[in-house]
Amino acid sequence: MIEIVDLHKSFNGQKVLNGVNLKISEKEIVTIMGISGCGKSVLIKHIIGLLMPDKGSILIEGVDITKIDIKELDKIRERLGVLFQGGALFDSLTVYGNIAFPLREKTKLSKSEIRDRVLDALEVVGLKGMGKKYPGELSGGMKKRVALARALITEPSLVLFDEPTTGLDPVIASSIHALIKATHEKYGYTGVIISHEVPKIFEITDKVAMLHNGTIVDVGTPEEIQNSTNPIVKQFITGSHEGPIEY
Amino acid sequence: MRTLIRIIGLWTLLQLRTIGHMFVFLINSFYFIFVPPFKIRLLLRQIRFFGNKSMLVILLTGSFTGMVLALQLFYILRKFGSEALLGPGIALSLIRELGPVLSALMVTGRAGSALAAEIGMMRISEQIDALSAMALNPLRYLIVPNIVAALIAFPLIVAIFDVIGIFGGYLVGVEILGISSGTYFSLMKDYVFMEDIMVGLYKSLSFGLIVSWICCYKGFYTGFGAEGVSKSTTEAVVLCSILILIWDYFLGAVLL
User: Fold this and answer.
1) Domain of B222?
2) Alpha helices in chain A (DSSP H)
């Protein structure tokens, strides 16, 4: 489904990605974890095609998105759903308008079909009856739920979650994790989650990759990662301030 | 000395690159003006945004500009015994020069700054990235409606400014300074021609383009965080104000 090959990216001479290699299979949920500022969001922006690498390639369903024009890239983006870190909801639209937006703009569905799908999505994310509210009236957790509903409304085959639970309390964070798991079972998408919510994130992910100093230092199932002998992974999971990770 | 030349050279190259980038942004935006689907609802919303945001300030500045013009022109014209020319003097000053320039400066401060800040906030809160991720072109959704709306709204705003200014001048010239109402308006009809109105129209159209282009560009390529948005909003207002005055001179010289 996704293959990242030797990805390099620098900003003003500072190396952020330094040869990232990662394979993500179809219908699998992969979590990319790492300390703050290690380049996780930069990596996800490369997968969306918002950033172009200095070197390397990203293959989505066999197509190298670093070598195609914007029209072809948009065709790939149409099969993509993204939950941004802050939700990225449109302030001028209601909750209903935000969720309906991709359907109105990218499909030829009738008003009633759009209405049915949006109301269904609101129910799935536990926000029934909240359609008329504006993003400014919502709490952080509710915003993430709306953003999740918007990301899934077009039933994409690939969904990217950029820190879906950052800034939320543990109860709301757990509910978002449960939602990701439930929607994955319902829609069967391939998921990439950027997170540092250990160990909770291990409950919903099939594979975990540790990003450090611009490279993937370890990949494995949640069990393998939790038993990893890699000192960087060990320090990250235990949350110890002593170890090879410099901060 | 060589270091100084190098610094000047690097600065010049940077400025040239920024100007080039701004023109590429404008040309790309213009392309989407003519390529469907057209976002009519967004366009109407932005016309309302420019008009609604600026109307009160336009009414106030327009009326007081006309009143001040009446006072000053009456003082000058009285020296030559030509007080009767007060009406056409006010009308020509407003229509050809002060109406387009002052209303463009006012709209820049009121709606232009809000526009740069709004687009800047959309950038830092990843709303623009969200549009791209949905395979929707942000220029079509955010920039084109603003440029077209400004091209439609600016001439209307300037027309309102001119009319209010003329009536402000009437209030002072006729009601306070004692010029006859008939003289004020009838001589205006004799001295103000269609080409004067067209000069005002060309100016308002070009100022509309300048304000929407610069404010959208600065917001679209804002820096990081609240500080970045604040900086780009200030830059947008300052650059628009300077460009309006410079362009006004050149256009005035050509159209005189």
Assistant:
1) 42-255
2) 40-48, 70-77, 95-106, 111-124, 140-152, 170-187, 222-226, 231-238
